[in-house]
Amino acid sequence: MADITTAEKSPAKLTKEVVRFEPRIIGFLCWWCSYAASDMAGTSRLKYPPNVSIIRVMCSSRVDPAFVMRAFAEGADGVLIAGCHLGECHYVSGNYKTAARISLLKKTLAQFGFEDDRIRLEWISAGEIRKFSKVITDMTEKVRNLGPLNWRENFEPK
Amino acid sequence: MEETSVKMLKLTIDGIETEAREGETILQVAERLMIDIPTLCHWKFVKPYGACRICTVEIEVHGKTRMVPSCSYKVRDGMVVKTRSEEVIKHRKMLLELMLARHSQVEVVRKLAHEYGVDTTRFEEMPSEQCINCGLCVRVCDEVVGANALTFVKRGTERYVSTPFEGEAESCIACGACAYVCPTGHITVQDIRDRKYVFSELALGPTTPIHIPFAAAIPGIPVIDSHTCIHMQTGGCGICSKVCEPDAIDYEMQDTFEEMEVGSIILATGYKTFDPKRAEQYGYGRLDNVITSLEFEHMSHASGPTGGAFVKADGSEPKSVAILHCIGSRDKNYNEYCSRVCCMYSLKIAHLIREKVPDADIYELYIDMRCPGSGYEEFYNRLLEEGVHFIRGKGVEVSQMPTLATTTPVASNSKLYVKCEDTLLGMPRELPVDMVILSVGLEPAADAEEVARVFKISSKADGFFMEKHPKLAPIDTLSDGIFIAGCAQGPKDIPDSVAQGAAAAAAAMSLIDAGEVALEPITSVVDEEVCTGCKTCLVVCPYGAISFDEEKHVSVINDALCKACGCCVAACPSGAITQRGFDDTQIEAELAALLM
Question: Which residues in A lie closer than 8 A to residue B584 (C-beta atoms)?
């Protein structure tokens, strides 16, 4: 199962040339850094694709891996988790726990055939608005190339 | 105790009867009586040496007269000393004649000889040597500094002072003590330090290890710079503690750290100026007469190293000056932002130069003149009327030789050529000037990153502290109770800094005044019915806000300690913990809505 990717299973690749696939990405952003960066990017009129829908959390460590699964189940094609740089967590050490949890989750999902690029963990400080826009643009492009996840067809029991 | 054990001796100096402690030298007693005895190789903080013999006096003990060097000869009971007898004068004259033969150009020798009426010598004159072999430098380096970096080489008439093996002395700590004691100026700071003399003063650092930090320091108490203090480096010297009568010098004093509990914090940690050495094309540190704006301020200060005179490195007055704006600012290679203060201070510098050197040619090389503020534009107009040349174009290079074919070289070896593009004339230009002042921009303080980390506040991409909202909350940070003011937030001038500082103080006061802090109701709670008592949450909480109730066998969260990160909620395997406002159902509802 591990070597079959969702893209191979999905018919979306064929239609990609005709209608550009717009991936739906959920972004869990830490209120203290990445969320502030997204706010600042907005005030600064920085451009980035509108594909990422943001959910604010107080700390990236609030992101229960179950939320990521739920997001995929609800139809997301990718999930971004962004927190403060290591050592700069507003809550002392929350981001270390996030790092551990998300890398475990990635490992688990890889076994189900999830491509690595569908889940992304980034450290973006409040001032790094350019990095924020770059990450969003880059992730959107990568997930666009992967095609839709098609959770219902691929992962739900028939 | 000590007083009684010292034997007091009676003696007569130049007819004055006096008492002296046993072990004192004649020179010490004479100094106390204000009797002037000339010396060349003596300094009271090193052991007497008796090299120059110019301090020779006549003594009479038990009816016998002798000539002895007063610096090293110890007093004896009943001794009669004559410091200016005919014999002594004759003796000194002879010594001075001998010295003149070998050191005819040495100022201190000539002056002393002249005092004694000796202007010529009967001896064969040799080429004048600057070093009189007094050995003060060697002894200071050994006894006071303890570095032992200097020594005498060879013997007799061939004797001279040098470093071990005549190479670079590894033990030299570049303290400058040898230059300080050298009576003839043979050793200068230039020789021992790779620094320019007048301009070393301008380095804005302490010029001596003991100094008052700055002219208006409060309290105005001198401090010792432990990095340059000889005592702290070698354990030697200690002269300051010997001369300080109230005994106020404490070498053992250490930095102390104090902890305070406060209700709110204002961070006004300031800025640092751009280091122009990073922009090599301007020649700062490489070319003598390229200085920064702050160094100009230091020089222009009445209590500065030149007493407020505006001079070049060689001490002469510059006749043409170029002031280069935007060094390290508005430049993609260094900092993209405008430092806001440089235009105005550059105008002020031009104004000060006009005042000090009225006929000087002053050039301001600017990208744009940014003079918004009360009276600022008017000041700019005044400078235009004062005949300052404004060239719209950034200075790009400072060199000693002209680089443009169109430039006519000036017949002077100390000219600097400033290359720029005059955007109003639409052509490159090169200005020959005597001096270049770099208007350096403002950068975040060196430790801004660390401060931000300690206080858990965010920084902007340029490194300055980030405000909560650029327009609506310019003094608040994302962390409640922490405020920012002044250049820590971004470059700003004095009126703006004062305004922001006052606002931050008022904001801090209002917190203190309220007496209590309202917490956001987003803390986490444990559902005791569901909690299995696995204690996972206890491990992940960074604040120790979760305790375990052994009786009920459940975790309990202390609302006052909980900072609401939600880490425990995500960690709880049984889903017993929820975060108010961020509980699982709420986030899942958000997800569902977003992905509908």
Answer: 64, 66-67
CATH top class, domain B524-595: alpha beta
| Closest CB from A26, A87, A97 relative to B594 | A26
State the pLDDT at residue B201. Answer: 41
List the beta strands (DSSP E) in B441-576. Answer: 442-444, 482-484, 524-526, 546-549, 554-557
Average pLDDT on B60-71 reads 89
Burial bucket for residue B82 (CB in 10 Å: 0-12, 13-18, 19+): middle
| Overall pTM > 0.80 | no
Is the pLDDT score of A19 beyond 90?
no
- Domain B274-443 carries which CATH code? 3.50.50.60
Q: Which domains, from first to last, does chain A contain?
A: 23-146 (3.40.50.960)
Residue A44, chain B, CB below 8 Å: the answer is: no
Query: Which of B457, B537, B565 should be substituted to probe chain A, the one whose Cβ sees the most A Cβ atoms within 10 Å?
Result: B565
Q: Which structure tokens are listed for A3? A: 């070597």
Per CB-CB distance under 8 Å, the chain B contacts of A57 are 566, 582, 587
- Just give the CATH number of B8-115: 3.10.20.740
Query: According to the model, what pLDDT value does residue B225 have?
Result: 81
What's the per-residue H, E or C state across B26-39? HHHHHHHCCCCCCC
- The pLDDT assigned to A2 comes to 46
- Answer with the residue of higher pLDDT: B333 or B1: B333
In this predicted model, what pLDDT tens digit does every residue of B152-181 receive, in sequence order?
888 888 888 888 777 777 777 777 788 888
Residue spans per domain, chain B: 8-115, 136-243, 274-443, 444-514, 524-595
Give mean pLDDT, residues B570-592. Answer: 92
- A54 to chain B: closest CA residue: B594
Q: For residues B237 and B253, give the distance between their C-alpha atoms in angstroms, rounded to a whole number.
A: 17
What is the rounded CA–CA span in Å between residue B470 and residue B175?
49
Count contacts between A and B (CB, < 8 Å). Answer: 105
In this prediction, the answer to ipTM > 0.95 reads no
Contact between A129 and B461 using a beta-carbon 8 Å cutoff: yes
Q: For position B213, what pLDDT does the model report?
A: 75
Burial pattern B543-575, b for ≥16 Cβ within 10 A else e, equals eebbeeeeeeebbebeeeebbbbbbbbbbbeee
pLDDT, tens digit (0-9, with 9 covering 90-100), for B540-569: 988 888 999 999 999 999 988 888 899 999
Provide CB contacts within 8 A for A88, sequence distance 6+.
A33, A95, A125, B453, B456
Name the β-bridge partners of B429: B420
Q: What is the pLDDT of residue B224?
A: 86
CA dist B567 to A62, B46, B546, Å? Answer: 5, 69, 12
Looking at the DSSP assignment, which residues form a beta bridge with residue A120?
A: A80
Q: Using the CB atoms, write b or e for B369-403: b if 16+ within 10 Å.
A: bbbeeeebeeebeebeeeebebbbbbbeebeeebe
In B, minimum Cα distance to A86 occurs at: B453
